[in-house]
Amino acid sequence: MFDDSDPRKTLAGKAEQSFSGPFCLPATGQFADAPPQDAGPGWRAWTMRSTNVVLRLVELDGAADFARTAQLDEYMVFSTDPEIRFTITTARGAVTDHPGNHLFILPPGDSRVRIAGRGKVAFVYTTRSADLVAACSNPSVAANPVIPPFQPWPDPVGGFRLRVYDLEVPDSPGRFGRLFRCTTMMVNILPRFTAPRDRSKVSPHYHASFEQISLTLEGDFEHFLRWPWTPDMAEWLPDMHIRCASPSVTVLPPPAIHTTLWVSEATQIVDIFSPPRMDFSQKDGWVLNAEDYPVARTVIE
After folding, report:
1. Is the pLDDT of residue 14 over 70?
2. Cβ–Cβ contacts within 10 Å for residue 13, how many?
3. Which of 57, 88, 125, 137 could form a disulfide with 75 if both were Cys (CB 3.0 to 4.6 A apart)?
4. What is the rounded CA–CA span in Å between residue 131 and residue 70?
């Protein structure tokens, strides 16, 4: 149910599906009003999980260091704030005093990320790391039966190493947002919007088998959700309307129909999926680093 102007209208159509309950509810982290899970001089960090993702959001006015030892898989670090500076060290690449408004994909193994400046930085991991899960505000979540077991995508071309991507990417007609993927996840760092969303052009849709983690970095948002009706009325859920200030995270569960409004003048939102979305990956030109990361072998021919 996309508006005609929405590039997602060109995605392959979904076959009619029936669902059975009970259904899972969304989860929301209102970071603007919640105490952080960790803090230090000049920084504080909130950490929250979904089924497959651990998200750590750092609000910075100073400097902070974050290290991983024997990390099991790839993870992402990004900031849309150009004044943030990154110094990243891994066994397979490093950068020093690198400007923000970039996305970094870090390889498995040992790594250290030093950030300095003022702004927000997101760290996105999988839930395979038990220590990160334990640090979350919600270390356990309800199992959603429609989400399959996590499977990583194929190794990157040329092997694992530190990879750096500029977020200063011009819009392109027919492309949706700024998509990047790795072996474990996909992010869509949508461009900043400078006016509230047109209420006559919203995009109610559902995902059959994966969650959407929506991270708001700037502005105010409203998420609307409703669930399928099943033959058992005891499984029916009332429609939900979630208001989010920034920063915040909302986990939108399958198969809830959902759409989002941005309701302030300046807004920034990032959508996260783990593992990467197949439908987005099958669209030519949508994934900006597709040459570095092969598509999973489960491509529908």
Report:
1. no
2. 7
3. 125
4. 12
b (16+ CB within 10 A) / e for 169-180: eeeeeebbbbbb
* 275 cis-preceded (ω within 30 degrees of 0): yes
Average pLDDT over residues 191-202: 96
Query: Could you state, in order of their start, the residue ranges of all structural domains in the chain?
Result: 19-281
- Residue 10's SS3 state is helix
pTM: 0.94
Joined together, the tokens standing for residue 34 give 């919640």
CATH homologous superfamily of domain 19-281? Jelly Rolls (2.60.120.10)
3-state secondary structure string across 108-129: CEEEEEEEEEEEEEEEEEECCC
3-class SS of residue 233 = helix
Strand arrangement, sheet containing 240-244: 240-244, 221-226, 257-262
Closest CA to 27 of 134, 128, 141: 141
Amino acid 44 reads R
Q: How far apart are CA 207 and CA 253, in angstroms?
A: 8
pLDDT over 70 (residue 289): yes
Closest C-alpha to 241, from 218, 219, 257, 265: 257
3-state secondary structure of 288: coil
Q: Could you report the per-residue pLDDT of 110-140, keeping only the tens digit for each?
A: 999 999 999 999 999 999 999 999 999 999 9
In this structure, the number of other CB atoms found within 10 A of the CB of residue 57 comes to 23
What does the angle CA 271 – CA 274 – CA 280 come to, to the nearest 5 degrees? Answer: 65
What pLDDT score was predicted for residue 150? 97
What totals of helices (H) and strands (E) does the chain contain, helices first?
Answer: 2, 18
Give start and end residues of each alpha helix (H) in 199-299: 278-281
At residue 13 the predicted structure's pLDDT band, cuts being 50, 70 and 90, is low
